[in-house]
Prior knowledge:
The protein is an alpha/beta fold.
Amino acid sequence: MIMQKFLFLFDIDGTILNMKRGLALDLFANMIEELFGVRLKPEDMPSFHGQTDLQILYDTADRAGIAHRDLDAKLEIIWDYLESGFNDLVNPDTISLLPGIEELILKLNNSGDVFLSLLTGNFERNAKLKLKVHGLDRYFSAGAFGNDNKSRNELPMIAIRRANIMSDSVFDVSNTLIIGDTARDIECAKVNGIKSVSVATGGVSSDKLLSHSPSLHFEDFSDTDLVIGSMLNVLNGNM
């Protein structure tokens, strides 16, 4: 097995792909109604932006008056329900890849220097469903997911441990890069001492993202050679 030098942890929604707006919110609302008998209006649902699915569930439960212990008791049923729902929803008409991302992932995968992994708020089964729509699931063999911990800040170290198990490399905070489209991606990198790349493809403006001081920032990933060169320069301490 090739010894990779760097670990790249990719967010999914807003970074790799976009899902048609409103579908996930409706699915979560329907799940709460069917399993707990409480119907929330769209405006009463919490923000999903940058959140883990587990945190979204707890926030939704709070708004619906559902005790966390009652939610926890049904977590496996909830994940099964959501997986079934997303399986019906995700397809090329509802999932679109963001500019340059397919070429970027392919070049990184072929470079021999980078181990590709995930750091996403999606629960694991849904992450794989979304990536599979355009055949990108085969590039990601490890990661940390929205069912691992409700706090995104806890996910980087989980992802690093799993990447080390899956590869012959030794990854730590010094040779890892977190790539995402929200301030929460930048924050979870900072609190773990990891460098970050932000991208303005998920609905958060460049000005807003830059105000959180990522290590690198791009409008999108369309210039893949520039993006890769800049990422490697940051990790090599040249920027």
